[in-house]
Amino acid sequence: MKRRNFVGKVALGAMSGIIGTEIVFGSSMPLEYVPLFLQDNDPYKMFAKDKEMVVLNDKPWNIEAKAHLLDDRITPNKSMFIRNNGLIPENIDAKNWTLTIDGESVKQKKTYSLAELKSKFKIYTYQLTLECGGNGRSEFDPPAKGNQWTIGAVSCANWTGIRVRDVLEDVGIKEDAVYIGYHAQDLHLTRDPNKEPISRGVPMKKALMDETILAFQMNGKDIPLAHGYPLRLVAGGWPASVSGKWINRISIRNKEHDGEKMTGSSYRVPKNPVAPGEEVKDSEMAIIESMPVKSLITYPKSGALLQSGSTLKIRGHAWAGELEVTKVMYSIDFGATWNSCSLEKPINRLAWQHFSAGIQFPKKGYYEVWAKAIDSNGKAQPMLVPGWNPKGYLNNACHRIAVKVV
Ligand SMILES: Nc1nc2c(c(=O)[nH]1)N[C@H]1C(S)=C(S)[C@@H](COP(=O)(O)O)O[C@H]1N2
Ligand SMILES: [Mo]
């Protein structure tokens, strides 16, 4: 059997990374041998996820949280959803990782090493809400193709990195720049190196915002491999698909970026409302930008039992894309009447906000607690599934939990 050469050693490093500890005697392991731990293919072990996370797909890996798993104020790795369009890159070599800035509207193309990026630019930390554009898709009728996310494709972690603006300005932006587009190291499902699984971007205005960063840490540690190690774009408040993982190139474009999943009907919704099931021409669709207002009751878990006469303390988070949430209300009578929750300010722009309330119930029996958030433009979450769209994006219907008073 072939022994490990240099390339083999790199792969060994990647395997250790996934396992989360060194493979002692790994150098004696035959080349192309797959350790049992990885053969198990247990995503909970591989990605260090909570046992209650729900695997929607394994090729590519797509995993979502349940509401009660998102109770932390800052989402830990174990309950952060994973959304991949392709295969997680293997053999990541952070020491030799580079980021190239190019495109029609770059003054002069430039490549930085990861170490250079970390030392040359000022470092910022923000809590940023990342929600998949398809979160809530499972509720649309007629159903939309794609991962059937329920409510768990959202997170708000602490991201540390450098401002995209600082890097682009260091390189030089031409006056005709309108968009940036990212390119990343993940592999297309076909393993065809000429195809990209996804290459999205944002208009310059969003790219140049303070909170749009190139992150190298999540919650104070190296970003977990599945979430974009060693470098990812984080553009909170927009569909999380624009927050490219494993980024190695950013193109400054003189037109709307036309990378994979930017065109056609991807991450687009009809410009005007359509009837459920109606066919919509691509020319009638618009790119999703800021995500709509939404909230999640993260405590208690749906199905809670409450002793009659006691007060139920509920809590959760609310977010509104680029906007702030100004109010969260709850209802225990299927939306007939509403009461205010107490609501905290966001720790920084684009971070989710925490709400809580103490609820008393009039008598024993079955109840549902509904939560509804309202954004700074006065827009509220709909109580039921909002406007149908062909790809099943932007379902921001009110979240609800069941409670029995006994
Ligand atoms: N390179 C790359 N970046 C990517 C993706 C991907 O498949 N490849 N998926 C995008 C999508 S659709 C979402 S919702 C978020 C999910 O981020 P997470 O897996 O860290 O939660 O990553 C985005 N960035
Ligand atoms: Mo997504």
Automatic annotation (TrEMBL):
<feature type="domain" description="Moybdenum cofactor oxidoreductase dimerisation">
    <location>
        <begin position="287"/>
        <end position="405"/>
    </location>
</feature>
<dbReference type="InterPro" id="IPR036374">
    <property type="entry name" value="OxRdtase_Mopterin-bd_sf"/>
</dbReference>
<keyword id="KW-0560">Oxidoreductase</keyword>
<dbReference type="Pfam" id="PF03404">
    <property type="entry name" value="Mo-co_dimer"/>
</dbReference>
<dbReference type="InterPro" id="IPR000572">
    <property type="entry name" value="OxRdtase_Mopterin-bd_dom"/>
</dbReference>
<dbReference type="InterPro" id="IPR005066">
    <property type="entry name" value="MoCF_OxRdtse_dimer"/>
</dbReference>
<keyword id="KW-0500">Molybdenum</keyword>
<feature type="domain" description="Oxidoreductase molybdopterin-binding">
    <location>
        <begin position="87"/>
        <end position="259"/>
    </location>
</feature>
<keyword id="KW-0479">Metal-binding</keyword>
<dbReference type="InterPro" id="IPR008335">
    <property type="entry name" value="Mopterin_OxRdtase_euk"/>
</dbReference>
<protein>
    <submittedName>
        <fullName>Sulfite oxidase</fullName>
    </submittedName>
</protein>
<dbReference type="Pfam" id="PF00174">
    <property type="entry name" value="Oxidored_molyb"/>
</dbReference>
<dbReference type="InterPro" id="IPR014756">
    <property type="entry name" value="Ig_E-set"/>
</dbReference>
